[in-house]
């Protein structure tokens, strides 16, 4: 359904978030609610991904991050992990053409070297094929953990210091931000988490410092354009103060976004 068929949800296109991040949660509960095995929820979640990517692109949101698989998700039963890996593989193979047609660049976040070779290769191929696309960036967080991200950044910075390339005095927020897996992406302006859970679950820790948080009970497989627009409308009602006073103009964090 075209976006302008939802007149009730007024979204001001001049005040859109630059970067929206989504914790896509609730696939298992969606399946259980429909009397289906968990993997059917994951399968159906793919339609939500497509719908949200299209909606974000149509609106002109330049960055969208999708949290697809956490480091902790490796602890799920191996049959579920295998199914998810198969699903990611199939998504990458089948969606790349569509992403190219829409001029969407894909970047991968997380410890992707932990992925099975087939998935790693498909991901690398999609990233490579789409690298020059400019209309929008979709970041897929696969095997991502916020704490591990910080630890990896600390290791890289420590190595630079040990190599004599960097002095500890020179380390600032930008140094850390650059070494995170998200280095080069702006911080998210809006985080959406579906399925009613009110937690971060080891997603972006450093990056969410001043992100607006939006939680919805809608389960990920039910999440569509309408829900995305509702989140954007809620975001636009927020006043982002960045620690300053109302309408404070020049705060350094604001300038980043
Ligand atoms: C999100 O749905 C998908 C992944 C974490 C990979 P879940 O599988 O966590 O679904 P629930 O939370 O059990 O309903
Ligand atoms: C967070 O969801 C991870 C992703 C959506 C990829 P989980 O379902 O893994 O989080 P918890 O276990 O409810 O905290
Ligand atoms: Mg979950």
Written overview of the protein:
The protein is of the alpha/beta class. It is 42% helix and 14% strand. It has eight helices and six strands; from the N terminus they run βααβαβαβααββαα. It has helices at 27-33, 38-59, 78-101, 117-130, 146-162, 173-179, 225-236, 252-256; strands at residues 19-23, 63-70, 104-109, 136-144, 190-193, 212-215. Strands 3-4-2-1-5-6 form a six-stranded parallel beta sheet, sandwiched between helices. Helix 2 (38-59) runs parallel beside helix 3 (78-101). The two termini are 30 Å apart. Bound molecules: 3-methylbut-3-enyl trihydrogen diphosphate (2 copies) and magnesium ion (MG). Residues 23-25, 67-70, 72-73, 197, 199, 201 line the site of one 3-methylbut-3-enyl trihydrogen diphosphate (IPE).
Biggest sheet, strands in spatial order?
3-4-2-1-5-6
Overall body shape = globular
Count of β-strands: 6
Low-confidence stretches: none
The ligands found in this model are: 3-methylbut-3-enyl trihydrogen diphosphate, magnesium ion
Strand content: 5-15%
Helix run count? 8
Gyration radius (Cα, Å) is 19 Å
* Mean model confidence by pLDDT: 94
SSE pattern: EHHEHEHEHHEEHH
Q: Structural class per helix/strand content?
A: alpha/beta
Ends: how far apart? Answer: 30 Å
What can be said about the biggest beta sheet? 6 strands, parallel
Q: Could you estimate the helical fraction of the residues in percent? A: 40-55%
């Amino acid at each position: 359904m075209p976006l302008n068929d939802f007149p009730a949800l007024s979204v001001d296109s001049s005040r859109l978030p630059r970067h929206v991040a989504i914790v896509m949660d609730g696939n298992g509960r969606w399946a259980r609610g429909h009397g289906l095995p968990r993997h059917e929820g994951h399968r159906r979640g793919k339609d939500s991904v497509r719908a949200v990517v299209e909606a974000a692109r149509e609106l002109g949101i330049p960055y969208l991050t999708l949290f697809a698989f956490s480091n902790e998700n490796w602890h799920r039963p191996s049959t579920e992990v295998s199914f998810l890996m198969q699903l990611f593989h199939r998504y990458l193979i089948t969606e790349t053409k569509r992403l190219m047609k829409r001029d969407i660049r894909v970047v991968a976040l997380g410890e992707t070297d932990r992925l099975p070779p087939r998935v790693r290769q498909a991901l690398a191929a999609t990233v490579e094929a789409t690298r020059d696309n400019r209309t929008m960036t979709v970041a897929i967080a696969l095997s991502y953990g916020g704490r591990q991200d910080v630890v990896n950044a600390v290791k890289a910075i420590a190595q630079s210091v040990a190599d004599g390339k960097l002095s500890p005095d020179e380390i600032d927020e930008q140094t850390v931000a650059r070494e995170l897996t998200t280095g080069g992406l702006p911080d998210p302006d809006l985080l959406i988490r579906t399925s009613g859970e009110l937690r971060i679950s080891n997603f972006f820790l450093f990056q969410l410092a001043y992100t607006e948080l939006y939680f919805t009970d809608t389960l990920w497989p039910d999440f569509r354009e309408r829900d995305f627009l509702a989140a954007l409308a809620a975001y636009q009602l927020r006043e982002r103060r960045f620690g300053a006073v109302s309408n404070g103009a020049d705060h350094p964090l604001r300038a980043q976004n």
